[in-house]
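Morning, I've got a small favour to ask if you have a moment. You're getting the sequence in one-letter code plus the fold written as C-alpha cells. Thanks so much in advance, here it is:

===
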Amino acid sequence: MIDRGIDPERLVAKGYGERVPRVLAKDVRKDGFLFKTGTRLTESYIDSLKTTPEKEAAHALNRRTEFRVLSKDFVPKPKNKEITQKVDIKINPEDNIVAIEVGRGNAVTIPVIVHGITVKIMLDRNDRGLIFSLPEAQKLLQSGAITKDDFIGDANVILAEGSIADRAVFKIREFKIGPKTVTNVEANVSHKITEGVIMGESTINMLGRFKI
C-alpha cells in the first residue's frame, strides 16, 4: 500500500491471533496441507487436526496482519518532508480504547468516522440523541458523505432553498468509533446548535458499553 502512494500514517496495522479466528475465503495450501474454503480456524478446530505439523500450519494461517486505510479527509504531509515507512504492528492490541479530548468544563469530545469523514462529536450528558448543527450537516451533504436519499421525509422540502430544515432527520449508514461500527443511526439537525455535533450516551451504547 505504501508503494502505491498511501501515506503510512493512514494505515492501521492489526495483528490477529487465536482471539479472532480466521475464516478462509478460498482454498489455501500451507506447508503441504490443504485447508478448504469456509474453514474457521478456531482453537477447537486446530486441536482436532491429526498431526503436529498440520496444527502448526493452521496456527500460521491464523496469525496474520491486515491493514485498514482510515478516514477520507486525511491531510497529507508537505512533499519536502520525508515519509517514514515504519508501521507499528501489535498482536491483539487493546482495540476498544479511543483517544478523546477533554475541554473546558470537562467537556468530552470523541472522534467519530461518518461515511469515511472524521467528525469530532461532543458527549451530551443530557442524552438528547445525535444532533448535528446546520453547518456540520451541510458539510456532510456537500462532501457527499450523505445525500438527499438519506433524509427521512420529502427531501425536496427538507433541502429547500439550499439549506436543511430545522429538526430534519437523516440516517447515517456507517457510524464508527474506533474499531466499532454501527449502521443506520438516526441523526437530527438543529438550528439552535450554532456549531459542532453532540451525542448522548444512548448513541454510544449502540456500539457497546463504554467507560471514560
About this structure: The longest strand covers residues 117-124. Helices lie at 43-47, 52-62, 134-143, 155-158, 201-205.
